[in-house]
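batch job 7 of whatever, protein = Transcriptional regulator with XRE-family HTH domain
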Amino acid sequence: MQHGPAVRRRKLGAELRALRTSAGLTSGEAARLVGWHQSKVSRIETGTSGVKPADVRLLLDAYGVTDSQLRELLLVLAESDDGGGRHHWWHAYRGVLPPTYRDFISLESQATAMRTLETTVVPGLLQTPEYARAVTKAAVEGLSEDRLDTLVEVRLARQDVLRGDPPLELSAVLDEAVLRREVGGPGVMARQLERLVEAARLPQVRLQVLPFAAGAHIGVTGPFVIFSFSITSDLNVVVLDHLTSSLYLERKEDLQAYTEAFNALQIHALSPEDSLDFIAGTAAGA
């Protein structure tokens, strides 16, 4: 269990080491190709030191890596801020967003699929502007209106991943409490429930409700997110949010445990079709 940047460095280093090995190079040979000392390559591969995006490019060129999707993902893991593309929009908010939040957004923007259990609030990718504003204001006390506006703007910008080509595949299990908790007042909540109904009909979204009637379940320990990547499963990661930070779990046994937990939650939850009816019924009675 580590903080995001440390996990990212280790994952990036492991991937670069695998690419070097596939290219048939020793660390010393790789170092000579790019004009470095062998110790620098070793530090990068073990994750003991950070690496600049420009250095990642040098290594990828030396290893003959031409897959543009893989190159872009590894550059994001190096926290590239010079890509200028859609995937790097969050760097414009570096002075506002804490590093752990930027780290989360970068993984979210590059993931193929996202599985999430939410026990208290609607997932950020499915929030309406009014709901996002109410949640943010309640979660972070003393925000100025300008900063609040910016954080809501970021929350809404994140939702572009659901409209990408291809879009992020989102599977969400929502505890019934998420639907019952009145955030922002009756009007805001009614519109949010309508938004959930709309989202549940999207082909890239699988939404399930875990009703109170299901009783105690494995998710009572708290919400979590699992990010999956099509390029390599070695980059898959579980994210746990805390009040002041986020923790990232990347060991295979942790990933397996949370994947099995999510699968169990899906079994105990209502089907997507019944969940849609449940949300629509809740909205009608709101």
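notes: Residues 80-87 have pLDDT under 50 and may be disordered.
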